[in-house]
Amino acid sequence: MSKYPFNKTNLYIALQYLTTRKKQTILAIIGVLLGVATFIVMINFMTGVNNFLDDAVFKGNPDIVIKPISHQKTNKLPFSIGPTTIENLEEISNELEANENVRAFANQTISPAILTSNYQQLPGSVNGIFPLEEMHMVDLNKRLIAGTGFSELSQNNIIIGISLAKRLGVSVKDTVTIILPNGKSTSLFVSGIFSFGITTIDNVRTYMSAKTLQNLLGLSKNITHINVKLKDRNNLDLKSLLLQQSKEIEIEDWKENNKTIVIGNKVRDILTWSVSLALLLVAGFGIYNIQNSAVFEKRKDIAVLKTIGYSSSDIIFIFLVQALIIGVLGAFLALGLGYLISFIISITPLDTSDFIIVKTYPVNFNKAHFILGFSFGVLTTVLSGYFPSRKASKVDPVTIIRGV
């Protein structure tokens, strides 16, 4: 019998142990269920929050911003009221088009302005854009609260952030007047209201036609910024390349502009996985204690089995089958419970006032988290059954019977 531990008799004994001690079996399954489900819920929620913040900040902003070097750095004074322009625009555009890491880029004319409505007057800035270019940079349609996006942005329209719209007291089809540094002004219809979910963006950002803004500034080809989206935003070699080719520009990258957020992301990632792995470890110890107790309670049965010819391999196999069944059942049920709780969290309303605009709690339903939780639950249970049974199988049956 010892040469063939994986036989029907051993399997039958393992199943009998499971069914005759139902309370103990159920308790072991619940231990796996709660440990794995808690891990799945926590990792889904915490990574969901991280992904939401990244999406709100980084997908709404360019990875690289190219602009003319400031007058403060050159010790020169501007010769006209209004923003300066990028001189070697064509050369830079050609370089961006040829670079394999560039996903998209868009020219902008940005100017400070005073925004006036019937209820409020606020200082701010306006982003003059070319709609077809900007559509490749920002998927504004996913962030629209009301009205239309870039595709229908005309010469007389403006799109504004939701927080700014609230402060101005305007909605779609209302009128906003912008006053530029050169004294010129124009009235624009609010064609759309968007929300990136972060007040620092929604409170200041506006989009209008670049041609309209350029005409008002009296600079028909004035381009103040080139916004670039990278395929791999961690690869910033393009920045060094452009600075080597031109001394008349300065370049900001997403890491420089979001140092606090970048550091915060690292801290949150470390915290997320530390807490999640700690939950798995705690669950693992709990499962081990349950399995160890189960083996200890069956030491008399182990002694009897060994006296009738069962080997150590037979004993280990019997308890491994039990552990495997408990682990698979517990982990499988944990997948359902973890998903259910995560789903409930994802539809739970969240009121954050105007700081972060989000309707429900962000949850990340990543398949890898479910696979990791299931695998850990099964592996931990099998190991928790193996080590105690291996130890018990080596004990002399006479010693076990005497100790009973």
Describe the protein's architecture and organization:
Strands 2-3-8-5-7-6 form a six-stranded mixed barrel, surrounded by four helices. Helix 1 packs across helix 13, helix 2 packs antiparallel against helix 11 and helix 13 runs antiparallel to helix 14. The protein is built from 15 helices and ten strands. About 3% of the residues have low confidence. The protein has 404 residues and is an alpha+beta fold. The longest helix has 39 residues. It folds into two domains: 194 residues, no CATH class; 169 residues, no CATH class.
What is the strand and helix layout of this fold?
Elements: H1 8-20, H2 22-58, E1 64-68, H3 71-74, H4 89-98, E2 102-116, E3 121-129, H5 131-137, E4 144-147, E5 157-161, H6 162-168, E6 175-179, E7 185-194, H7 199-202, E8 206-209, H8 210-217, E9 225-230, H9 237-245, E10 249-253, H10 254-257, H11 259-297, H12 299-307, H13 312-346, H14 367-393, H15 397-403
Parallel strand pairs: 3-8, 5-7
Antiparallel strand pairs: 1-9, 1-10, 2-3, 2-6, 2-9, 4-7, 5-8, 6-7
Helix pairs in contact: 1-13, 2-11, 2-13, 2-14, 11-14, 12-15, 13-14
